User: Fold this.
Amino acid sequence: MKAELIITTYNSKEAMFLLEEGRLVKACLLHNESLIGNIYTAKVANIVKSINAAFVDAGTGDFLYYPLADNERTTIFTRHGNSDKVSPGDEILVQIARDPIKTKKGEASSNITLKGDYIIVNRSNEVGISAKITDQEQRERLKKSLSEVLKDYKDLNAGAIVRTAAKNVPDEKIIEETIIILCKLRDVIQKSVHKNAKELICRTESEYIEFIKEVIVKDKYEDFEIVTDIEDKYDEINALVRNTDIPGGYSPDKSLTIRLFSDKMTNPVNAFNLKSKLEKGMARTIHLKSGGSIIVDTTEAMTVIDVNTGKAIKGKNTEKTFLSINKEAAEMIARTLRLRNISGIIIIDFINMKDPGSIHELIEYLKIQVSQDEMRVNYVDITGLGLVELTRKKQAHPLSIKDFD
Assistant:
């Protein structure tokens, strides 16, 4: 698959756009990036026993939800009273796990997680291996080696997850990175003890930098081009690629290029037709090439997507036509979830089909399409009324065309 990442100025705002085979699947504003991953010292404002949660103030502009059950064994106190439990007035170290979404507050966690190219260090006290690393001997070897390393960091309750990118990497390199990240985690915790509440301790990388790194270490695309007309971004990306320990930044059989857009007669927004792509992708009604359409309505409780035949009915074999439109709609829906960052409960009303084989084919196709999402998307079931239920992980703000105005 060919992909282009365009970083440019859109309506006087720096923004990132990802095109896969020319189709817009991701967009975000760089000046209004998520706080997810940032680490703060926070003050416990109050405890709500009915939901077994605390609300903490990290200086981010609003209280953060802090689930006590999920953090029971991982809370890191920087200031603590006499109680053995989290209490109002305590100061703790937290990481932003979720941005505020609609009326829901952001979420904080004491399970501090730091990512490397090949390893993720957290505070689970366990070792995990990516399911995509299938060599049993390598899995057992890494689990044993990492368990030994973690013994020296018992005070951190540290755990480690080996990422898919480590599949063909020497064990020594993975262990070396693990130790570096464990030392960083220890440094963050020790640093926090000497800080006041509501201070930023560690800032996560910019979303576009983190995204580029993910693409590089996972060899996600056969052909990946990064285009920007912002010189400091161009320099930053070049420096990132030079410092990435993967030959050429990509596998030898894949292509990675970085281009400074220098056409004085136009700009990337016009050259890549981004305005039109963004407006179409964010519209309530999205027209399909077949003549059908999908209608997207988002409420506080859920997102409802309706698939319509429109002018696409041709010929006598309506079942085959319905399947074709539904599959085209499934592909568009998967892209729309990514582009708009729709999360929570998603209900899809596909065109009704009678053949169980056609329904099964559609569901399997939908699962393949949503599996390409950076966020976790779960297929739940088909209701008695024939509605397809999905859930998508809630993490960052949903997007609309107004965000880019």
